[in-house]
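lol forgot to send this yesterday, sorry. C-alpha coordinates for the thing we talked abt
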Protein backbone atom coordinates (compact mmCIF):
# COMPACT_ATOMS: atom_id res chain seq x y z
CA UNK A 1 0.00 0.00 0.00
CA UNK A 2 2.94 2.36 0.58
CA UNK A 3 3.61 2.24 -3.17
CA UNK A 4 0.16 3.71 -3.81
CA UNK A 5 0.57 6.72 -1.51
CA UNK A 6 0.86 10.13 -3.14
CA UNK A 7 2.60 11.65 -0.11
CA UNK A 8 6.13 10.29 -0.47
CA UNK A 9 7.35 11.86 2.75
CA UNK A 10 4.60 10.19 4.80
CA UNK A 11 5.12 6.89 2.94
CA UNK A 12 8.82 6.92 3.87
CA UNK A 13 8.07 7.60 7.55
CA UNK A 14 5.52 4.78 7.63
CA UNK A 15 8.04 2.45 5.99
CA UNK A 16 10.80 3.36 8.42
CA UNK A 17 8.84 3.38 11.65
CA UNK A 18 6.03 0.88 11.04
CA UNK A 19 6.94 -1.71 8.41
CA UNK A 20 10.71 -2.24 8.38
CA UNK A 21 13.45 -3.18 10.87
CA UNK A 22 11.50 -2.39 14.05
CA UNK A 23 8.81 -4.94 13.19
CA UNK A 24 11.35 -7.78 13.12
CA UNK A 25 13.51 -7.09 16.20
CA UNK A 26 11.61 -9.51 18.44
CA UNK A 27 11.96 -12.38 15.95
CA UNK A 28 15.63 -11.55 15.39
CA UNK A 29 16.29 -11.84 19.12
CA UNK A 30 14.11 -14.90 19.73
CA UNK A 31 14.63 -17.16 16.70
CA UNK A 32 18.03 -18.67 15.71
CA UNK A 33 19.50 -17.50 12.44
CA UNK A 34 19.36 -20.87 10.68
CA UNK A 35 15.56 -20.83 10.93
CA UNK A 36 14.83 -17.29 9.73
CA UNK A 37 17.80 -16.33 7.56
CA UNK A 38 15.98 -16.80 4.25
CA UNK A 39 12.84 -15.04 5.51
CA UNK A 40 14.89 -12.07 6.72
CA UNK A 41 16.45 -11.69 3.28
CA UNK A 42 12.99 -11.79 1.69
CA UNK A 43 11.82 -9.15 4.15
CA UNK A 44 14.81 -6.92 3.27
CA UNK A 45 13.97 -7.28 -0.42
CA UNK A 46 10.41 -6.11 0.27
CA UNK A 47 11.72 -3.01 2.09
CA UNK A 48 14.14 -2.38 -0.80
CA UNK A 49 11.33 -2.53 -3.36
CA UNK A 50 9.12 -0.23 -1.27
CA UNK A 51 11.89 2.37 -1.01
CA UNK A 52 12.47 2.22 -4.75
CA UNK A 53 8.78 2.94 -5.29
CA UNK A 54 8.83 5.84 -2.83
CA UNK A 55 11.90 7.42 -4.43
CA UNK A 56 10.70 6.64 -7.98
CA UNK A 57 14.10 5.27 -8.89
CA UNK A 58 16.04 2.04 -9.17
CA UNK A 59 18.64 2.23 -6.42
CA UNK A 60 22.15 1.05 -7.24
CA UNK A 61 23.93 -1.37 -4.91
CA UNK A 62 26.00 1.49 -3.47
CA UNK A 63 22.93 3.68 -2.90
CA UNK A 64 21.07 0.85 -1.17
CA UNK A 65 24.08 0.09 1.02
CA UNK A 66 23.97 3.70 2.16
CA UNK A 67 20.17 3.67 2.63
CA UNK A 68 20.51 0.77 5.09
CA UNK A 69 22.62 2.88 7.45
CA UNK A 70 21.22 4.87 10.36
CA UNK A 71 20.42 8.51 9.60
CA UNK A 72 23.32 9.74 11.74
CA UNK A 73 25.64 7.75 9.43
CA UNK A 74 24.13 9.27 6.30
CA UNK A 75 21.55 6.57 5.57
CA UNK A 76 17.76 6.39 5.55
CA UNK A 77 17.45 4.30 8.71
CA UNK A 78 16.28 1.18 6.82
CA UNK A 79 18.50 -1.35 8.56
CA UNK A 80 18.91 -4.78 7.06
CA UNK A 81 17.43 -7.45 9.30
CA UNK A 82 19.70 -10.12 7.78
CA UNK A 83 22.87 -8.10 8.42
CA UNK A 84 21.94 -7.21 12.01
CA UNK A 85 20.51 -10.57 13.05
CA UNK A 86 23.81 -11.66 14.61
CA UNK A 87 23.89 -8.54 16.79
CA UNK A 88 20.33 -9.22 17.96
CA UNK A 89 21.14 -12.86 18.78
CA UNK A 90 24.28 -11.98 20.79
CA UNK A 91 22.49 -9.26 22.75
CA UNK A 92 19.54 -11.54 23.49
CA UNK A 93 21.59 -14.52 24.70
CA UNK A 94 23.87 -12.37 26.86
CA UNK A 95 20.90 -10.56 28.39
CA UNK A 96 19.01 -13.67 29.54
CA UNK A 97 22.07 -15.75 30.62
CA UNK A 98 22.28 -14.45 34.20
CA UNK A 99 18.54 -14.80 34.83
CA UNK A 100 18.45 -18.26 33.25
CA UNK A 101 21.22 -19.47 35.56
CA UNK A 102 19.34 -18.17 38.58
CA UNK A 103 16.26 -20.09 37.51
CA UNK A 104 18.19 -23.24 36.61
CA UNK A 105 21.80 -23.71 37.77
CA UNK A 106 22.25 -26.37 35.07
CA UNK A 107 21.58 -23.86 32.25
CA UNK A 108 24.30 -23.54 29.63
CA UNK A 109 24.39 -21.16 26.68
CA UNK A 110 23.53 -22.82 23.37
CA UNK A 111 27.08 -23.03 22.09
CA UNK A 112 26.25 -23.57 18.44
CA UNK A 113 23.96 -20.52 18.15
CA UNK A 114 26.46 -18.32 20.01
CA UNK A 115 29.46 -19.41 17.91
CA UNK A 116 27.64 -18.79 14.62
CA UNK A 117 26.38 -15.38 15.74
CA UNK A 118 29.81 -14.37 17.08
CA UNK A 119 31.52 -15.43 13.86
CA UNK A 120 28.99 -13.54 11.71
CA UNK A 121 29.30 -10.40 13.84
CA UNK A 122 33.11 -10.43 13.90
CA UNK A 123 33.17 -10.76 10.11
CA UNK A 124 30.76 -7.84 9.78
CA UNK A 125 32.85 -5.50 11.95
CA UNK A 126 36.26 -6.81 10.84
CA UNK A 127 37.52 -7.66 14.34
CA UNK A 128 37.40 -10.29 17.08
CA UNK A 129 35.51 -8.21 19.63
CA UNK A 130 33.08 -11.01 20.56
CA UNK A 131 34.51 -14.28 21.86
CA UNK A 132 33.04 -17.44 20.28
CA UNK A 133 33.38 -19.23 23.64
CA UNK A 134 30.40 -17.49 25.22
CA UNK A 135 29.17 -14.17 26.64
CA UNK A 136 31.38 -12.13 28.93
CA UNK A 137 28.87 -9.69 30.31
CA UNK A 138 25.75 -8.19 28.82
CA UNK A 139 26.03 -6.94 25.22
CA UNK A 140 23.88 -4.02 24.05
CA UNK A 141 22.25 -4.51 20.64
CA UNK A 142 22.28 -0.79 19.86
CA UNK A 143 26.08 -0.65 20.28
CA UNK A 144 26.63 -3.84 18.31
CA UNK A 145 24.55 -2.52 15.41
CA UNK A 146 26.41 0.81 15.55
CA UNK A 147 29.72 -1.06 15.18
CA UNK A 148 28.38 -2.85 12.09
CA UNK A 149 27.19 0.40 10.50
CA UNK A 150 30.46 2.22 11.23
CA UNK A 151 32.31 -0.52 9.35
CA UNK A 152 29.84 -0.26 6.44
CA UNK A 153 30.27 3.53 6.31
CA UNK A 154 34.06 3.15 6.18
CA UNK A 155 33.67 0.73 3.27
CA UNK A 156 31.43 3.20 1.42
CA UNK A 157 33.98 5.96 1.84
CA UNK A 158 36.74 3.65 0.66
CA UNK A 159 34.75 2.84 -2.50
CA UNK A 160 34.66 6.54 -3.51
CA UNK A 161 38.19 7.36 -2.38
CA UNK A 162 39.13 8.59 -5.87
CA UNK A 163 36.05 10.84 -6.19
CA UNK A 164 36.39 14.06 -4.10
CA UNK A 165 32.80 15.15 -4.67
CA UNK A 166 31.38 11.86 -3.47
CA UNK A 167 33.72 11.85 -0.48
CA UNK A 168 32.55 15.37 0.36
CA UNK A 169 28.92 14.22 0.07
CA UNK A 170 29.43 11.32 2.47
CA UNK A 171 31.05 13.68 4.96
CA UNK A 172 28.47 16.46 4.75
CA UNK A 173 25.48 14.15 5.23
CA UNK A 174 26.97 12.87 8.50
CA UNK A 175 27.24 16.35 10.01
CA UNK A 176 25.13 16.93 13.14
CA UNK A 177 21.42 17.37 12.26
CA UNK A 178 22.03 16.97 8.51
CA UNK A 179 19.37 14.26 8.41
CA UNK A 180 16.81 16.18 10.48
CA UNK A 181 14.61 16.54 7.38
CA UNK A 182 14.20 12.75 7.31
CA UNK A 183 12.70 12.63 10.80
CA UNK A 184 10.29 15.58 10.36
CA UNK A 185 6.59 14.74 10.53
CA UNK A 186 4.96 16.31 7.44
CA UNK A 187 2.70 19.09 8.66
CA UNK A 188 2.71 22.86 8.09
CA UNK A 189 6.29 24.07 7.77
CA UNK A 190 7.75 20.57 7.58
CA UNK A 191 6.02 19.10 4.55
CA UNK A 192 7.58 18.40 1.15
CA UNK A 193 5.95 17.91 -2.22
CA UNK A 194 6.26 14.35 -3.60
CA UNK A 195 8.75 15.25 -6.32
CA UNK A 196 10.76 17.40 -3.90
CA UNK A 197 11.12 14.44 -1.55
CA UNK A 198 12.06 12.08 -4.38
CA UNK A 199 14.79 14.42 -5.64
CA UNK A 200 16.07 15.07 -2.11
CA UNK A 201 16.42 11.32 -1.49
CA UNK A 202 18.32 10.88 -4.76
CA UNK A 203 20.72 13.67 -3.87
CA UNK A 204 21.16 12.25 -0.38
CA UNK A 205 22.03 8.79 -1.72
CA UNK A 206 24.16 10.00 -4.62
CA UNK A 207 21.78 8.53 -7.20
CA UNK A 208 21.16 9.95 -10.66
CA UNK A 209 18.88 13.00 -10.48
CA UNK A 210 18.77 14.01 -14.16
CA UNK A 211 18.53 12.15 -17.42
CA UNK A 212 21.76 12.15 -19.40
CA UNK A 213 22.77 14.79 -21.95
CA UNK A 214 20.79 17.80 -20.75
CA UNK A 215 21.33 21.56 -20.64
CA UNK A 216 20.50 23.60 -17.54
CA UNK A 217 17.11 25.22 -18.24
CA UNK A 218 17.99 28.25 -16.10
CA UNK A 219 21.57 29.28 -16.95
CA UNK A 220 21.68 27.35 -20.29
CA UNK A 221 24.93 25.65 -19.35
CA UNK A 222 25.69 22.50 -21.36
CA UNK A 223 26.53 19.19 -19.77
CA UNK A 224 24.15 19.21 -16.79
CA UNK A 225 25.66 16.56 -14.51
CA UNK A 226 23.34 13.69 -13.63
CA UNK A 227 24.03 13.78 -9.86
CA UNK A 228 22.81 17.36 -9.43
CA UNK A 229 26.05 19.07 -8.39
CA UNK A 230 25.38 21.98 -10.73
CA UNK A 231 21.88 22.48 -9.30
CA UNK A 232 23.36 22.88 -5.81
CA UNK A 233 25.74 25.62 -6.95
CA UNK A 234 23.90 27.49 -9.73
CA UNK A 235 23.15 31.07 -8.61
CA UNK A 236 20.87 31.90 -11.53
CA UNK A 237 17.10 32.01 -11.38
CA UNK A 238 16.72 33.13 -7.75
CA UNK A 239 16.59 29.61 -6.25
CA UNK A 240 19.59 30.23 -4.02
CA UNK A 241 18.09 33.46 -2.70
CA UNK A 242 14.72 31.80 -2.06
CA UNK A 243 16.41 29.03 -0.07
CA UNK A 244 18.40 31.58 1.93
CA UNK A 245 15.29 33.61 2.76
CA UNK A 246 13.33 30.50 3.79
CA UNK A 247 16.04 29.62 6.33
CA UNK A 248 16.16 33.23 7.52
CA UNK A 249 12.40 33.23 8.09
CA UNK A 250 12.56 30.02 10.15
CA UNK A 251 15.34 31.52 12.26
CA UNK A 252 13.32 34.71 12.71
CA UNK A 253 10.28 32.72 13.89
CA UNK A 254 12.44 30.80 16.38
CA UNK A 255 13.73 34.07 17.85
CA UNK A 256 10.15 35.33 17.96
CA UNK A 257 9.14 32.24 19.99
CA UNK A 258 11.91 33.10 22.44
CA UNK A 259 10.62 36.71 22.79
CA UNK A 260 13.95 38.14 21.60
CA UNK A 261 12.24 40.93 19.59
CA UNK A 262 13.93 39.99 16.30
CA UNK A 263 14.00 42.21 13.23
CA UNK A 264 14.58 41.04 9.66
CA UNK A 265 17.01 42.76 7.30
CA UNK A 266 17.44 45.76 9.60
CA UNK A 267 19.52 48.46 7.97
CA UNK A 268 22.12 50.17 10.11
CA UNK A 269 25.59 51.66 10.17
CA UNK A 270 28.70 49.52 10.17
CA UNK A 271 31.83 51.58 10.72
CA UNK A 272 31.75 54.31 8.10
CA UNK A 273 29.23 52.49 5.86
CA UNK A 274 25.68 53.78 6.44
CA UNK A 275 22.62 51.90 5.17
CA UNK A 276 24.26 48.47 5.24
CA UNK A 277 22.37 45.40 6.45
CA UNK A 278 24.61 43.86 9.14
CA UNK A 279 22.61 40.64 9.38
CA UNK A 280 19.56 38.73 8.23
CA UNK A 281 18.12 38.79 11.76
CA UNK A 282 18.94 41.39 14.40
CA UNK A 283 18.31 41.08 18.13
CA UNK A 284 18.29 44.39 20.04
CA UNK A 285 19.43 42.74 23.30
CA UNK A 286 20.95 39.55 21.96
CA UNK A 287 20.14 36.35 23.82
CA UNK A 288 20.18 37.68 27.39
CA UNK A 289 23.38 39.57 26.61
CA UNK A 290 22.36 43.22 27.03
CA UNK A 291 24.12 43.90 23.75
CA UNK A 292 22.65 43.81 20.25
CA UNK A 293 23.48 40.81 18.06
CA UNK A 294 23.33 40.31 14.31
CA UNK A 295 22.84 36.87 12.75
CA UNK A 296 23.75 36.34 9.11
CA UNK A 297 22.73 33.16 7.28
CA UNK A 298 25.00 31.51 4.74
CA UNK A 299 24.62 28.20 2.86
CA UNK A 300 27.71 26.64 1.33
CA UNK A 301 27.90 23.69 -1.08
CA UNK A 302 30.79 21.36 -0.12
CA UNK A 303 30.53 19.62 -3.51
CA UNK A 304 31.29 22.76 -5.51
CA UNK A 305 34.42 22.56 -7.64
CA UNK A 306 36.20 25.31 -5.68
CA UNK A 307 36.19 23.60 -2.27
CA UNK A 308 35.33 19.91 -2.81
CA UNK A 309 38.99 18.84 -2.45
CA UNK A 310 39.20 20.33 1.05
CA UNK A 311 35.66 19.26 1.98
CA UNK A 312 36.52 15.66 1.02
CA UNK A 313 39.28 15.65 3.65
CA UNK A 314 37.82 17.69 6.52
CA UNK A 315 34.20 17.25 7.63
CA UNK A 316 32.40 20.58 8.05
CA UNK A 317 34.97 22.48 6.00
CA UNK A 318 32.31 24.24 3.92
CA UNK A 319 30.47 25.51 7.01
CA UNK A 320 33.71 26.75 8.59
CA UNK A 321 34.62 28.53 5.36
CA UNK A 322 31.20 30.19 5.31
CA UNK A 323 31.65 31.36 8.91
CA UNK A 324 35.11 32.74 8.15
CA UNK A 325 33.83 34.62 5.10
CA UNK A 326 31.06 36.29 7.10
CA UNK A 327 33.39 37.27 9.93
CA UNK A 328 35.82 38.77 7.47
CA UNK A 329 33.00 40.83 5.97
CA UNK A 330 31.17 42.04 9.08
CA UNK A 331 32.54 41.03 12.45
CA UNK A 332 35.36 43.53 12.95
CA UNK A 333 33.24 46.59 12.15
CA UNK A 334 30.32 45.24 14.21
CA UNK A 335 32.52 44.78 17.25
CA UNK A 336 33.68 48.37 16.95
CA UNK A 337 30.01 49.33 17.26
CA UNK A 338 29.61 47.15 20.37
CA UNK A 339 27.47 44.68 18.39
CA UNK A 340 27.93 40.92 18.58
CA UNK A 341 27.78 38.70 15.52
CA UNK A 342 26.78 35.12 14.64
CA UNK A 343 27.59 33.50 11.30
CA UNK A 344 24.75 30.98 10.90
CA UNK A 345 26.45 28.64 8.41
CA UNK A 346 24.77 25.59 6.88
CA UNK A 347 25.90 23.10 4.27
CA UNK A 348 23.76 22.46 1.21
CA UNK A 349 22.53 19.00 2.32
CA UNK A 350 21.21 20.31 5.65
CA UNK A 351 24.24 20.02 7.97
CA UNK A 352 24.78 22.68 10.65
CA UNK A 353 28.01 24.52 11.37
CA UNK A 354 29.28 24.65 14.97
CA UNK A 355 28.26 28.27 15.53
CA UNK A 356 24.79 27.70 14.05
CA UNK A 357 24.20 24.74 16.39
CA UNK A 358 25.34 26.72 19.43
CA UNK A 359 23.17 29.74 18.67
CA UNK A 360 20.07 27.69 17.82
CA UNK A 361 20.41 25.78 21.09
CA UNK A 362 20.45 29.04 23.07
CA UNK A 363 17.35 30.27 21.24
CA UNK A 364 15.60 26.92 21.78
CA UNK A 365 16.42 27.05 25.50
CA UNK A 366 14.83 30.49 25.80
CA UNK A 367 11.75 29.43 23.85
CA UNK A 368 11.41 26.22 25.89
CA UNK A 369 11.57 28.14 29.19
CA UNK A 370 8.80 30.45 28.06
CA UNK A 371 6.58 27.63 26.81
CA UNK A 372 7.54 25.21 29.64
CA UNK A 373 8.62 22.58 27.16
CA UNK A 374 11.59 20.25 26.91
CA UNK A 375 14.62 22.08 25.49
CA UNK A 376 15.80 19.15 23.38
CA UNK A 377 12.36 18.80 21.79
CA UNK A 378 12.20 22.50 20.90
CA UNK A 379 15.72 22.40 19.46
CA UNK A 380 14.86 19.32 17.38
CA UNK A 381 11.76 21.05 16.04
CA UNK A 382 13.76 24.12 14.96
CA UNK A 383 16.53 21.97 13.45
CA UNK A 384 13.98 19.97 11.43
CA UNK A 385 12.32 23.12 10.11
CA UNK A 386 15.61 24.67 9.02
CA UNK A 387 16.95 21.42 7.53
CA UNK A 388 13.70 20.95 5.58
CA UNK A 389 14.04 24.42 4.04
CA UNK A 390 17.64 23.77 2.95
CA UNK A 391 16.83 20.41 1.34
CA UNK A 392 13.59 21.66 -0.25
CA UNK A 393 15.49 24.57 -1.77
CA UNK A 394 18.05 22.20 -3.28
CA UNK A 395 15.32 19.91 -4.66
CA UNK A 396 13.35 22.79 -6.18
CA UNK A 397 16.48 24.10 -7.86
CA UNK A 398 17.09 20.67 -9.42
CA UNK A 399 13.49 20.29 -10.60
CA UNK A 400 13.69 23.61 -12.45
CA UNK A 401 16.90 22.72 -14.26
CA UNK A 402 16.19 19.53 -16.17
CA UNK A 403 14.25 16.31 -16.64
CA UNK A 404 14.27 14.24 -13.47
CA UNK A 405 14.92 10.50 -13.68
CA UNK A 406 11.89 8.27 -13.20
CA UNK A 407 11.39 4.84 -11.67
CA UNK A 408 12.43 3.09 -14.89
CA UNK A 409 15.77 4.91 -15.17
CA UNK A 410 18.98 3.08 -14.46
CA UNK A 411 21.10 4.46 -11.62
CA UNK A 412 24.74 5.49 -11.75
CA UNK A 413 25.89 1.88 -11.50
CA UNK A 414 23.64 -0.15 -13.81
CA UNK A 415 25.80 -3.22 -13.42
CA UNK A 416 25.03 -3.47 -9.70
CA UNK A 417 21.26 -3.12 -9.90
CA UNK A 418 19.25 -6.06 -8.63
CA UNK A 419 18.13 -8.23 -11.52
CA UNK A 420 14.57 -8.62 -10.22
CA UNK A 421 12.47 -5.73 -11.61
CA UNK A 422 10.18 -3.80 -9.33
CA UNK A 423 6.49 -4.44 -9.92
CA UNK A 424 4.28 -1.41 -9.44
CA UNK A 425 0.58 -1.79 -8.73
CA UNK A 426 -1.76 0.58 -10.55
CA UNK A 427 -5.12 1.49 -9.00
CA UNK A 428 -8.13 2.28 -11.18
CA UNK A 429 -10.24 4.53 -8.99
CA UNK A 430 -13.47 4.00 -10.97
CA UNK A 431 -13.21 0.21 -10.78
CA UNK A 432 -12.41 0.45 -7.07
CA UNK A 433 -15.51 2.60 -6.48
CA UNK A 434 -17.73 0.17 -8.43
CA UNK A 435 -16.41 -2.76 -6.38
CA UNK A 436 -17.06 -0.86 -3.15
CA UNK A 437 -20.64 -0.06 -4.22
CA UNK A 438 -21.29 -3.69 -5.18
CA UNK A 439 -19.92 -4.85 -1.84
CA UNK A 440 -22.14 -2.34 -0.01
CA UNK A 441 -25.23 -3.54 -1.86
CA UNK A 442 -24.41 -7.18 -1.07
CA UNK A 443 -24.03 -6.33 2.63
CA UNK A 444 -27.37 -4.48 2.65
CA UNK A 445 -29.11 -7.37 0.89
CA UNK A 446 -27.72 -9.84 3.42
CA UNK A 447 -28.90 -7.63 6.30
CA UNK A 448 -32.36 -7.37 4.72
CA UNK A 449 -32.65 -11.15 4.35
CA UNK A 450 -31.54 -11.74 7.93
CA UNK A 451 -34.07 -9.19 9.18
CA UNK A 452 -36.88 -10.85 7.21
CA UNK A 453 -36.02 -14.28 8.65
CA UNK A 454 -35.91 -12.84 12.15
CA UNK A 455 -39.27 -11.14 11.53
CA UNK A 456 -40.95 -14.33 10.37
CA UNK A 457 -39.72 -16.23 13.44
CA UNK A 458 -40.65 -13.47 15.90
CA UNK A 459 -44.12 -12.90 14.40
CA UNK A 460 -45.32 -16.52 14.64
CA UNK A 461 -48.29 -16.92 17.09
CA UNK A 462 -48.50 -13.23 18.03
CA UNK A 463 -50.90 -12.10 15.38
CA UNK A 464 -48.74 -9.11 14.34
CA UNK A 465 -45.95 -8.40 11.86
CA UNK A 466 -42.71 -6.87 13.09
CA UNK A 467 -40.97 -4.26 10.85
CA UNK A 468 -37.71 -5.24 9.14
CA UNK A 469 -34.43 -3.79 10.47
CA UNK A 470 -33.34 -2.66 7.02
CA UNK A 471 -34.52 -0.64 5.17
CA UNK A 472 -36.31 1.71 7.62
CA UNK A 473 -40.13 1.25 7.70
CA UNK A 474 -42.27 3.24 5.30
CA UNK A 475 -43.76 6.31 7.07
CA UNK A 476 -47.17 5.44 5.52
CA UNK A 477 -47.25 2.01 7.22
CA UNK A 478 -48.75 1.59 10.72
CA UNK A 479 -46.31 2.44 13.49
CA UNK A 480 -45.38 -0.67 15.50
CA UNK A 481 -46.15 -0.78 19.19
CA UNK A 482 -43.17 0.68 21.08
CA UNK A 483 -41.33 -1.20 23.79
CA UNK A 484 -42.72 -0.64 27.28
CA UNK A 485 -41.19 2.19 29.28
CA UNK A 486 -43.13 1.35 32.39
CA UNK A 487 -45.52 4.30 31.79
CA UNK A 488 -48.98 4.36 30.20
CA UNK A 489 -50.18 6.95 27.70
CA UNK A 490 -51.33 9.31 30.46
CA UNK A 491 -47.93 9.28 32.09
CA UNK A 492 -48.88 7.05 35.04
CA UNK A 493 -47.06 3.83 35.89
CA UNK A 494 -48.28 0.76 34.00
CA UNK A 495 -49.11 -2.44 35.80
CA UNK A 496 -46.16 -4.87 35.83
CA UNK A 497 -46.03 -8.55 36.40
CA UNK A 498 -48.34 -9.68 33.61
CA UNK A 499 -47.12 -13.04 32.32
CA UNK A 500 -46.83 -13.66 28.61
CA UNK A 501 -48.73 -16.97 28.75
CA UNK A 502 -51.66 -15.20 30.50
CA UNK A 503 -52.15 -12.79 27.62
CA UNK A 504 -55.71 -12.66 26.24
CA UNK A 505 -56.49 -13.64 22.68
CA UNK A 506 -56.40 -9.99 21.69
CA UNK A 507 -52.70 -9.34 22.18
CA UNK A 508 -53.14 -5.64 21.45
CA UNK A 509 -55.08 -5.29 24.70
CA UNK A 510 -51.91 -5.72 26.67
CA UNK A 511 -49.25 -3.03 26.33
CA UNK A 512 -46.05 -4.96 25.76
CA UNK A 513 -46.15 -7.13 28.84
CA UNK A 514 -42.64 -7.68 30.19
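and heres what i got for the seq, position by position
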Amino acid sequence: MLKLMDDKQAAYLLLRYCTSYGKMVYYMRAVPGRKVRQELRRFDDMVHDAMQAISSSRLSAQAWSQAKLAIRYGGLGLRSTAEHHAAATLASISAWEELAKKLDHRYRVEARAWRKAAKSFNEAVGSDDVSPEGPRGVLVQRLLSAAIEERQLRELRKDVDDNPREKARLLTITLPHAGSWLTAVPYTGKDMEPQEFEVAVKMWLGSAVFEAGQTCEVCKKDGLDRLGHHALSCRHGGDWTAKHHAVRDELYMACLDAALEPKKEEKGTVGTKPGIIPGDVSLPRGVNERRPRSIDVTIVNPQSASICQEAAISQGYAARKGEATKYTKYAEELQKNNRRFTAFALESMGGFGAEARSFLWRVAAEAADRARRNKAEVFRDYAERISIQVVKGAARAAIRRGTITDRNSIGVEPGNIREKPVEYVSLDVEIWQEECEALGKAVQQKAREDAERKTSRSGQGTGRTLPPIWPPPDPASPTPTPRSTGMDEEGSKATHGTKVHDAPADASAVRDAP
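The mean pLDDT is 79. anyway ping me if u want another try
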